Amino acid sequence: MEVFLFLGFCFDDLEGAIANRPYIISLFNVLMETIFESILNSCVIIFFINLSKKKHMLYRILKFIIGVGIRLYYKEIRVNNRGNLSNGKKPMIIIANHPNTLMDAWVIGMICNQPIYYMAKATLFDSKFKLKLLRSLKMIPINRRGEGVTDGVDNNDSLSECYKVLSEGKTLVIFPEGTSYKEKVLRELKTGTARIALETERLNDSNLDLQVVAVGINYSQPEKFRSNILIDIDQPRGVMDHYELYLKDKRKAVRSLTDQFRDRLEKVLVTTETKDEEELLDDIYKVLNTKYIPSDEKGVQRQVSELKEIKNKIDELKLVQPWRIDELKQRIKSMDWKLEKMKIRADFLDRKFRSRLFLRQIFTSVVFILVALPLAIFGLIHNYLQYLFTDWLVPKLSTDIEYYAPLAILVGIVLYPLSYTGFALLVHYLLDFSWGLMLIYVLLMPLIGMFTYWFFKYLTHISYKWRYMFLMIDHKEALHELQSEKKQVKELLFED
Fold first, then answer.
1. How far apart are CA 163 and CA 160, in angstroms?
2. Which of 186, 351, 454, 483 is deepest in the core (most CB within 10 A)?
3. Contacts of 452 (CB under 8 A, 6+ apart)
4. Membrane-crossing residues (predicted)?
5. Torsion angle defined by CA atoms of residues 305, 307, 312 and 318, in that order, rounded to the nearest 10 degrees
6. Inter-axis angle of helices 25-51 and 2-17, to 10 degrees?
7. What is the rounded distance in angstroms from the CA atom of residue 317 to the CA atom of residue 320?
8. Do residues 344 and 447 touch, judged by C-beta distance below 8 A?
9. Residue 238, SS3?
């Protein structure tokens, strides 16, 4: 059921994101009404099926579609310690950071096996129909400060429902930051989560053994297609170490437990204290990141580990040698300018240049490009217009970058199947394919589309490789100077 709950989230949040853009309201309404109407109908069907406790294929299909959408959008989704989300018969609160609006809820729902309840902003329940339906879908509304009071939503009733859900041994998801921004800065946590946890224990005479699990959602580039996610999950931990204090001084206990929640989230995240520090961290990583130096860790796990290592060194330098921070900024700025001027990537500076090897690699690449080009053309014909349209439409629907990924997935869920259906009908009409050939054709459209995206990324990589080879021949000294600068940045950051 959590899948449909997430989609309910989408309609309200995305509607709000474009509310001040009247020139696209009609386009948005046509798109979103089509999506939401079909989703609501599916929700009603699934809800009544769940009431009768029957497994139904439609539920599985819809959940599969959402999961496929997420997995197609992101290249790698790595989950560490997924077993920590299995609550058994104990009540559980999942707390998580909130950098990517709707996607954060989708991702948590995708990796959890048990049914999930969510606390959601009350503006989502702005009609009697939505209120009745979405409450049935395990969403608990809460009026947030600054957003007024939604008809039919009473915060006391909502809190009582949270206590009831947890008292029954179920799982509740809360984003304690309250709002969502694309940044590594972990904003101030609201105290409501701690209050719900401790009050639930009090109402059950401290016999629940309620567990809180911190989930860190680390995106490499949350809005970017085919970027990566590392989901790091902390060990479940009870709240009884604050219970006695709560009975004596509720305010102090809630504040202390909230501080503990913050410490736990920081351990599963790459966090910075300010936006400027985040920019410095990203700039240093961009210069030092390389795939040409072997490491035991791979992919997004390696990226997050390296970001944490850089962040720890920055924190250390701020305390003992703050002058190094200013020098790092200057050197990074200088390197960025030179790399941009030479049009090469920083990781190529770690490559060992062997002319024969490079020539052999270039020759192999040219042969591969010629062989793969027909497939890439097939992929372009069947996917490029949809890709361009989505890329054009999403920024029109919302200028908030936090909405780009969920919007793109929602648009893609509708647009790509419709376009593939159109291609299939056209080919069937023109070529009269058999059903077997038609099935192969339909399957090839998305598969070769993904290959085509990778193919053009590969062409970009080859262009950098060509550029690097010619620079090593014509401007070898300039490249050696850059390599020396990169080494100095490493020494400035890591050496005592």
1. 5
2. 186
3. 375, 376, 378, 379, 380, 383
4. 26-51, 362-385, 405-431, 438-456
5. 170
6. 160
7. 5
8. no
9. strand
Which parts of the chain have pLDDT scores under 50? Answer: 1-56, 58-59
Separation between Cα atoms, residue 282 and residue 278, nearest integer Å: 6
What's the CA gap between 373 and 142, in Å, rounded? 54
* Phi, psi dihedrals of residue 345, rounded to the nearest 5°: -90, 150
Amino acid at 315: D
The answer to whether the beta carbons of residues 234 and 268 sit under 8 Å apart is: yes
452-466: pLDDT as tens digits: 999 999 999 999 888
Q: What is the DSSP letter of 119?
A: E
Burial 115-140 (b: 16+ CB within 10 A, else e): ebbbbbbbbbbbeeebbebbbbbbbb
> Was domain 77-267 assigned CATH 3.40.30.10?
no
H/E element, 134: helix 128-136
Q: Taking Cα atoms as reference points, which of 328, 317, 406 lies closest to residue 107?
A: 406
Q: Do the beta carbons of residue 486 and residue 331 sit within 8 Å?
A: no
Please give the structure tokens belonging to residue 76.
Answer: 């790698």
What separation in angstroms does the CA of 448 have from each of 226, 454, 475? 15, 10, 39
**Residue 27 to residues 46, 102, 414, 452: CA-CA distances in angstroms?**
29, 21, 14, 29
Determine the Cα–Cα distance for residues 232 and 356; give it in Å rounded to an integer. Answer: 43
State whether residue 303 is helix, strand or coil: helix
In this prediction, residue 41 carries a pLDDT of: 45
Task: Delimit the domains of the chain by residue range.
Answer: 77-267, 275-342, 355-484
Burial class from Cβ neighbours inside 10 Å (0-12, 13-18, 19+) for residue 374 reads: exposed
pLDDT tens digits along 390-415: 999 999 998 999 989 989 998 999 99
Look at strands 237-238 and 211-219 and give their pairing: antiparallel
437-460 in b/e form (b: 16+ CB < 10 A) is ebeebbeebbebbebbbebeebee
pTM listed for this prediction:
0.85
